[in-house]
Amino acid sequence: MSGEGVEAWQTIGAGRGQGGILIVADHASARIPDDIDLGIPADVLTRHVAVDIGVAPLAQALCDRLSCDAVLGGVSRLVCDCNREEDAPGLIPLSSDGIDIPGNHLDAAGREARLARIFRPYHDAVAAAIARGRPALIVSLHSFTPKLETRPEEQRPWQIGILYNQDERAARIAIPLLEAAGIVTGDNQPYSGRVLNATMNRHAEGAGIPYIGIEVRQDLIGDDAGVMLWAERLAPIIGASWDSFADAMDDGARRRA
């Protein structure tokens, strides 16, 4: 499975198979396809508005430690934000954190073409990965900024945020473990998964699969050393959370036998 993918997505890892862990990273890439001109300065692609900084290497490091698979988004969220419902206005953003994106002023046909090219293939890939292995736990991996450009007065002191919507099962395991490890942890912070949780609503909550939405503050994983440190800190917590649900799956299988 390592390195497979097309334009809209990439899969990495060599997973546990049935009942394992699946990592999903909607915003892992800053890539803009060559034939799409967003009309933005090139340096914007190095910033959080374009990509979740540090998430792609962190996903790889976690896959290595946990022997699991990941599905990574293959293009910048400025092209198509896959962590949105298909009819959401911000799916093809006209602006982001104060930056205008003139190349996203599309007519209905242009919007449909972008959905067919990026959004739907990405979600098809996530659904296929789930169907292959029916994971016991899904990990939604993102990073967040210490502050927003448009709200610099709003400080974000958390090192890790755990997000969830209606299904809190894995969050209630992970948050105490993170806090016991001395990690400053936000409970549905820096924003609430009850407000923005589209990918996990669709693929985890919609299928009854436990999940953890993990947000890592991007300044902590902005270089290789930070990525390795946080992979080491997060892997045992993800593993312990997975153990709870894998055991439950095993018990269910034994009862059915």
Q: What is the mean predicted local confidence, pLDDT?
A: 92
Evaluate the radius of gyration: 18 Å
Which CATH top level class fits? Alpha Beta
What is the level-2 CATH architecture name? 3-Layer(aba) Sandwich
Protein name: N-formylglutamate amidohydrolase
Pfam families: FGase
Keywords:
two-stranded antiparallel ribbon; 17% strand; Aminopeptidase; eight-stranded mixed sheet; disordered C terminus; alpha/beta; 257 residues; UCP029730
Structure report:
It holds the Pfam family FGase. It comes from Sphingomonas oryzagri. This is N-formylglutamate amidohydrolase. It is a single chain. This protein has a single domain (4-256), classed as Zn-dependent exopeptidases (Aminopeptidase, 3-Layer(aba) Sandwich). The chain contains 5 helices and 10 strands, in the order βββαβββαββαβαβα. The protein has helices at 55-66, 108-133, 169-180, 198-203, 224-256, and strands spanning 4-6, 9-13, 21-25, 69-73, 95-96, 99-100, 137-144, 160-163, 185-187, 211-217. The model is unreliable at 252-257 (pLDDT under 50).
Q: Could you outline the blueprint of secondary structure elements for this entry?
A:
Blueprint: E1 4-6, E2 9-13, E3 21-25, H1 55-66, E4 69-73, E5 95-96, E6 99-100, H2 108-133, E7 137-144, E8 160-163, H3 169-180, E9 185-187, H4 198-203, E10 211-217, H5 224-256
Parallel strand pairs: 3-4, 3-7, 7-10, 8-9
Antiparallel strand pairs: 1-2, 2-4, 5-6, 8-10
